[in-house]
Design a protein that fits this description.
By secondary structure, this protein is α/β, with parallel strands linked by helices. The protein is 37% helix and 25% strand. The chain has helices at 49-63, 93-97, 131-136, 170-180, 182-186, 194-203, 208-221, 230-250, 262-274, 284-296; strands at residues 8-15, 20-26, 31-37, 69-72, 87-88, 101-104, 110-113, 117-121, 124-128, 143-147, 152-158, 161-168, 255-259, 278-282, 302-303. The strands form 3 sheets. A 7-stranded mixed beta sheet has the order 3-2-1-4-7-6-15, sandwiched between helices. Strands 12-11-10-13-14 form a 5-stranded mixed beta sheet. The chain has a 3-stranded mixed beta sheet with strand order 5-8-9, with no helix packed on it. A hairpin with a 2-residue loop joins β8 (117-121) and β9 (124-128).
């Protein structure tokens, strides 16, 4: 494990369902060192969180035991290390800071967990945990942010606060359709990315997504669509439907901040352009670390329930 560097100021940990990412950060927020692995919360045995965290950060702490440790993501969920209660909407960085909790590390020191955000909007409940840190890191006073993923989030900010948000199961539905239905069995590799534009077009057609999804099978059988286009077509169909649904919820906009890496950013940019909306691309890692630092600097955490 790499020793801490002289100008290190903190350790940030993004601990999700399937992955753990730990960062050694300097006072300006630059990454000095990092460790990453497939040790998400679902792979941690009961009582094993302190030892798992130690594997990733003890080398840094050995060089400087005073480094603060801040964690975000599903580590603060009911299935994680300790549950950090959701902050209700509307929520600003200071509201999240006020609900942070601490847990005891394997070396006896403290680690801070940032909570998620919850709300009920038009009678429908919604929650997010982890994405709130990226949103805070945008430093966006007023506007709409899109965070693609297994469960994509669209977040409305007003006056620098998370006013409301909506979750779309785009990634999970894509995985189900492409891996566990007759549509996926039609697909061939390598994929023909031209299918994405065709799926976007289909997402705007009459009949809805269930009808348009079956059209992929019919078109392959009728030889009007190549099998290599099936998966990109499904992606375009679902992303196009997500964008249309989000814009219907939040109204006409000139631009949306898309927090995504290059592959997803390109797809969402294409879908937004088709709706005459500009995509402002933001690096998710930079937003995450900036948001974690901003939240952690604004409050004193409460002691969590588990060590």
């Amino acid at each position: 494990m790499t020793d801490a560097m002289p100008d290190a100021s903190s350790i940030a940990v993004d601990w999700g369902t399937t992955r753990l990412r730990a960062y050694l950060i300097d006072a300006e927020g630059a990454i000095l060192d990092r460790h990453e692995g497939a040790d998400g919360i679902m792979s941690v045995p009961v009582g094993g969180f302190p030892a798992m965290l130690a594997r990733y950060i003890d080398g840094w702490l050995a060089a400087d035991p005073t480094l603060p440790v801040v964690m975000a993501g599903m580590v603060g969920s009911r299935n994680g290390w300790a549950e950090a209660p959701y902050a209700p909407c509307p929520a600003a960085a200071r509201d999240l800071a006020g609900r942070m909790i601490t847990v005891v590390r394997a070396d006896g020191g403290a680690a801070t967990i940032i909570p998620g955000v919850a709300g009920v909007f038009d009678g429908a409940g919604d929650v997010m945990r982890g994405e709130e840190t990226l949103v805070v890191g945008l430093d966006l006073e007023d506007g709409l942010a899109c965070l693609p993923g297994t469960h994509a989030k669209w977040v409305l900010l007003r006056g620098g606060r998370i006013e409301r948000f909506s979750t779309f199961m785009t990634g999970e539905i894509y995985a189900a359709l492409s891996e566990h239905t007759i549509l996926g069995r039609l697909a061939t590799e390598p994929a023909d990315t031209a299918g994405f534009a065709r799926g976007l077009h289909a997402s705007r057609s009459a009949g809805g997504p269930l009808h348009a999804a079956f059209a992929a099978r019919a078109n392959v059988l009728l030889e009007t669509m190549a099998p290599a286009m099936v998966k990109p077509y499904l992606s375009g169909l679902l992303v196009g439907g997500e964008v249309a649904g989000a814009l219907a919820l939040y109204g006409d906009l000139e631009a949306v901040h898309v927090v995504a890496t290059s592959g997803q950013a390109a797809l969402y940019s294409q879908a937004l352009a088709a709706a005459n909306v500009e995509a402002i691309i933001v690096d998710p890692e930079a937003a995450l670390l900036k948001g974690m630092a901003r939240i952690a600097s604004q409050g004193k955490p409460h002691m969590g329930s588990r060590s």
